[in-house]
Amino acid sequence: MTSPPRTPLVPRPAKVRFKAGHFTLDADTCLRVTGGAEPAADLLRTLLAPATGLPLRPAADGPVVLALDPALTGLGDEGYGLTIGPHSLLLRARTLTGLLRGVQTIRQLLPVPALAASPQHDVPWTLPCADLTDVPRRPWRGAMLDVARHFQPLSYLLRYVDLLALHKINVFHLHLTDDQGWRMPVPAYPKLTEIGGHRSQSLIGPGGDRYDGTPHGGAYTRAELARLVDHAAARGITVLPEIEMPGHARAAVAAYPHLGNRPDRTLDVWTRWGVCDTTLGVHEEVFNFCRTVLEEVMDVFPSPYVHIGGDECPTTEWEQSPAARDRARGAGLAGPAALHAWFLDRVGAFLTRHGRRPVAWAETGTELPGGFTVMAWRDPAHALAAARRGHDVINSHHRATYLDYPRSAGPGEPPGQPGGVVGLRDVHRHDPVPETATPEAAARVLGTQAHLWTEYAATPARIEYLTFPRLCALADGAWSGPSTWDDFSSRMAGHSARLDALQVSRHP
Ligand code: ACM
């Protein structure tokens, strides 16, 4: 007997057994939905409607069952069970989030045209009979998009979230502010977006001194950000907001010079890429500013975590500023350089008092105050050092998770972040748990994340070219743990047809 065909799934489910036969969805198929599971039914209908037009009406005796069962503790916060027979489809989970993950698996089990954006005719909407039990290996599977270097409209963010959800990514990290642009509206500080949201031009390509001569700008409205949060939540994704401080803050200082170290100086929103010397000052007004901004952030974003940057913060301006040197002395610090941790500690404590968990980039893994969740990017050793110190860690080594690096060294590759290539195999090989981690340190690794800095990615087409298929490899490892290259690449060959149906750009 030949074994039943296996539908290639990305990420790979923890346990799956395909069986002979199939189940068919048609215009008469009804859904039986238990209390609390309605949002999962809504998502299934929303996602399948454009291509299939299936109404999937509710009915007490429907053959498709979406059920919440608190007794299914083995499925954890995001797991689900899916049993497909010739006459029924049963999706069960302990949590609504688990059902939302299962909905994405149902999408992948259907014929590829189910993912299309327009009506597909004459396709039998069949799913293979199968038993699946699926739980993620790590609770944090993130993707960061930098909308500060290049702004993208809300409509694009909604699509990006949809693409993340298909891959069971559960954190969408939105990098909202940087030296080159401020995208988050804060009513008490309107110039942040009015002035800080625009730069006069942008540097073209890595290195060199060529500018495009074209102004770039944009900012979200509060209503748009609220819509993004709702759209993501309906797909089981948390939007993690990031407001950069005390470095990468040139746009804020351009808008409000008194927040910097030299109130007499007016700066432009930065037009270069790289690390900028401009930092926030350390006077009390700056902390009032940070609190006001973060209050607005907490109002808009329900995420339990709030990211406050902390990376690449030159201390030159503090060293040159009598006020900052006084501040360091007054706080009993060894010198102005210690203001970095002191600054983050104060702001982190403010977030903690408001019931949120501060997140920051690790520069070494040992410099951040306790209570911070650490995003380690420079070196896997930093992830380990932070975990050993008792921090929760998101391990996203830039050599494996930075999607702004070129995909290959080939001649057709568009200009990317200088410094190396991050190929699909590099992402696939990345294991967020460092090899030498003790069980205690390993337990501190929440997961991993992909990062797309957008200095050289101005358009959705470029963003998608850089994101896919590399994000598929990251999502696969984060959800399922390591796989062999042969296993991943053979599933990816099938999954590519889905990316095509979704019109994900294959070309830069
Ligand atoms: C970073 O890449 N500056 C976090």
From TrEMBL:
<dbReference type="InterPro" id="IPR015882">
    <property type="entry name" value="HEX_bac_N"/>
</dbReference>
<keyword id="KW-0378">Hydrolase</keyword>
<keyword id="KW-0326">Glycosidase</keyword>
<feature type="region of interest" description="Disordered">
    <location>
        <begin position="406"/>
        <end position="437"/>
    </location>
</feature>
<feature type="domain" description="Glycoside hydrolase family 20 catalytic">
    <location>
        <begin position="139"/>
        <end position="481"/>
    </location>
</feature>
<dbReference type="Pfam" id="PF02838">
    <property type="entry name" value="Glyco_hydro_20b"/>
</dbReference>
<dbReference type="InterPro" id="IPR015883">
    <property type="entry name" value="Glyco_hydro_20_cat"/>
</dbReference>
<dbReference type="Pfam" id="PF00728">
    <property type="entry name" value="Glyco_hydro_20"/>
</dbReference>
<dbReference type="InterPro" id="IPR029018">
    <property type="entry name" value="Hex-like_dom2"/>
</dbReference>
<feature type="domain" description="Beta-hexosaminidase bacterial type N-terminal">
    <location>
        <begin position="8"/>
        <end position="134"/>
    </location>
</feature>
<dbReference type="InterPro" id="IPR025705">
    <property type="entry name" value="Beta_hexosaminidase_sua/sub"/>
</dbReference>
<dbReference type="InterPro" id="IPR017853">
    <property type="entry name" value="GH"/>
</dbReference>
<protein>
    <recommendedName>
        <fullName>beta-N-acetylhexosaminidase</fullName>
        <ecNumber>3.2.1.52</ecNumber>
    </recommendedName>
</protein>
<comment type="similarity">
    <text>Belongs to the glycosyl hydrolase 20 family.</text>
</comment>
